[in-house]
From TrEMBL:
May be involved in transcriptional regulation. It comes from Danio rerio (Zebrafish). It is found in: Nucleus. Belongs to the krueppel C2H2-type zinc-finger protein family. Residues 66-93, 94-121, 122-149, 150-177, 178-205, 206-233, 234-261, 262-289, 290-317, 318-345 form the C2H2-type domain. This is C2H2-type domain-containing protein. Its main location: nucleus. One of its GO terms (molecular function) is DNA binding. PROSITE patterns: ZINC_FINGER_C2H2_1, ZINC_FINGER_C2H2_2. Keywords: DNA-binding, Metal-binding, Nucleus, Repeat, Transcription, Transcription regulation, Zinc, Zinc-finger. The lineage of its organism: Eukaryota, Metazoa, Chordata, Craniata, Vertebrata. The keyword Zinc-finger applies.
Length: 352
């Protein structure tokens, strides 16, 4: 048994091959393999020389670098290059024994294990909140320091994280990279798409513990809970009246200001809220979205449908306090009341 030792002149890598003397062909094959390995290492060194020649600012200690042939990234140690190559090969040799998730670096596995152990070794000295990663603590500290190093060049707004700035920039660029496969609607955040998908799936994961009603957003559940608690956090500064929703307060304020910001483009009539304008537009469009299930007749307002339904049900909810006679519509009751009062508001002048 003989040993052939080949040492690369360009990169300090030593490889030893064992060759059987009784098989000349196998010996020749192994020598060829070694030659190919040497040529590959020489190729790495050639890229290294080109890299060094094009950058005169490199320090002397950066002469021996290992370059990835896939993406060109360079490393000072061969071990670091080996770790990096797992990105291209997809190799993930470090597996979590708890959940089976795999990682390409042992350090990433160690970080992941803290999810199972609950370990959070990095603690904020200001408020005591703990984190699994030092980088998370660093970001958190900006809340206390007020530091916002990432600034939008368009409007000057600043953020503590680069990812938040990137999301903000989509407002200026109009970019919406997250698209719904069901209806094609796009969003600038993945969270927006995730919430939107509940419209298609019908998922309502947030349930009221009081009445069992479910919602697709936690914010909607939070608002709904005010119906049970009676909380009315939004107060009118003019009259002190309180409301459980900010939108209701906004509508109320138009009573004091007289503001009617929603104007019909067809006839110029103005309204205090958009819903009133939306209802009004049906007069011009002829839209009648409310249909009677009994006879199929359609109406442009839900109130008109409700009045019509009483024809089929025979319901007469409006009762005269004088004689007890009931009517299906409040207008009919008002006309009836005049028979008791003797009021005749529609009498012609020449009959007076």
């Amino acid at each position: 048994m003989a040993f052939i030792k080949v040492e690369s002149e360009d990169v300090e890598i030593e490889e030893t091959f064992t060759v059987k003397q009784e098989d000349p062909q196998e010996q020749t094959d192994l020598i060829e393999v070694n030659k190919g390995s040497k040529e590959e290492e020489h190729h790495v060194k050639f890229e290294e020389k080109t890299y060094l020649q094009t950058d005169g600012n490199l320090k002397r200690r950066d002469k021996n670098r290992f370059i990835c042939t896939q993406c060109g990234k360079s490393f000072g140690r061969k071990d670091n290059l080996k770790i990096h190559m797992k990105i291209h090969t997809g190799e993930k040799p470090f597996t979590c024994t708890q959940c089976g998730k795999s990682f390409n670096q042992s350090s990433n596995l160690n970080d992941h294990m803290m999810i199972h152990t609950g370990e959070k070794p990095f603690t904020c000295t200001q408020c005591g909140k703990s984190f699994r990663k030092s980088s998370s603590l660093t970001l958190h500290m900006m809340i206390h320091t007020g530091e916002k190093p990432f600034t939008c060049t368009q409007c000057g707004k600043s953020y503590s994280q680069s990812s938040h700035l990137n999301q903000h920039m989509m407002i200026h660029t109009g970019e919406k990279p997250f698209t719904c496969t069901q209806c094609g609607k796009s969003f600038n955040r993945s969270s927006g798409l995730y919430q939107h998908m509940r419209i298609h799936t019908g998922e309502k994961p947030f349930t009221c513990t009081q009445c069992g009603k479910s919602f697709n957003r936690s914010s909607n559940l939070y608002k709904h809970m005010r119906n049970h608690t009676g909380e009315k956090p939004f107060s009118c500064v003019q009259c002190g009246k309180s409301f459980n929703f900010s939108s209701t307060l906004y509508q109320h304020m138009t009573i004091h200001t007289g503001e009617k910001p929603f104007t019909c483009t067809q006839c110029g009539k103005s309204f205090t809220c958009s819903s009133r304008l939306h209802q009004h537009m049906r007069i011009h469009t002829g839209e009648k979205p409310f249909t009677c299930t009994q006879c199929g007749k359609c109406f442009n307002f839900s109130s008109n449908l409700n009045r019509h339904i009483r024809i089929h049900s025979g319901e007469k909810p409006f009762t005269c306090t004088q004689c007890g006679k009931s009517f299906s519509q409040s207008s009919h009751l008002n006309q009836h009341i005049m028979s008791h009062t003797g009021e005749k508001p529609f009498m012609s002048n020449h009959l007076v």
